[in-house]
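Record 1 of the preview.
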Amino acid sequence: MTTNITSAQLDAASDVLEDVLRFQSPADSVLSGFFRANKKAGARDRAFIAEAVYGVLRNLRQLQAVVGESVRARKLVLAWLIRVEGYSQRHLNPLLSKNESDWIIEVKSTAWTATTLGERTNMPDWLATRLEAQFGEEKLLALSAAFNRPGPLDLRVNPLKAERDVVLAQFAAEGIVATACTYSPLGIRLESKISLQKHPLFLDGSLEVQDEGSQLLGFLVAPKRGEMVTDFCAGAGGKTLLLGGLMRSTGRLYAFDVSEKRLQKAKPRLARAGLSNVHPAAIDHENDSRIKRLAGKMDRVLVDAPCSGFGTLRRNPDLKWRQTEPGVIELTEKQASILTAASKLVKKGGRLVYATCSLLDVENDVVVDAFLAAHPEFKQISATEVLAQQKVVLDTGERLRLNPLTHGTDGFFAAVFERVA
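->
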């Protein structure tokens, strides 16, 4: 973080944060809209504005405990700079009014200690309570600290166009510090952010941005050349791209989603990646007639279910404030319905993978256990063993469980099923 903050940067960060705190749109969408409308903002301006917004969101519970819940966004940014980033009043004084200077003195001298679990973890009480029941207080505190740090930039090599060792050698020659990911055979982790969208390897489809944990879901599906495969909740196509690459652009890969807009965003990425076997299709719901026509025909089906997203808090800290407990319970009903509908596509001997980017049992184990109880035609197979077959050495037990504290990835859950022949 630069020590030389301008008045314009502080004003812009405050304005964007004010909009974000209405929680009507995702924080990244609000930031993207602001930057599109302010194309003259330089790289340093953009970096400060984004860091300030995400910094406040990560620490919102504790900041509001110190300065009050009704303060405006500008004071939250100032409190973040003082209490979290460790700025001195001397650095900030040129940007402050007399009233703000007096207020800063008060904020800086306020002695405060987190008392509730929600305050200690910077989470809403209901979420902290649920996660404590799963992990225990000590691990939850460590997990929350890991989630409160920005996530690294992970890339995935497109196996149709590049080899990881060659890409790493090219990065080294260009002075870009990068390492092979610990688990994913196609993953690369960058030590610092670069202007990736202008890099030739990104432009020609050799690289995509994808968290290492997300990459592992593709290796659980493990599609083979020539198979019939479905990405049931394809979204903007991140996992579809990986599945298509693993299939070497052979066979037939259906990409279903209820959002035509998200699927449209996937199309240029699919073209850039050199994939010709993907068939995107917008559906009205999980029981759409277009899905029913494919019943019992799929070799592999991935259900990356819509979820709370709490496993991605490093990148989307606003989710913990935008989601509610009733909203999550409502999601679980949808998850169960989608999993049941997707399972009908799987042929005998075929594979079904259910995944979320959440740590909550209610979205994960509870959904899976209920599915297995209701569908004796499916048996669970070990995620650890499936990954080992793909030369991925990672023992997370029968079901995949990833988190930033233990694995350095976003939080993911997955269970693998096989339709009994």
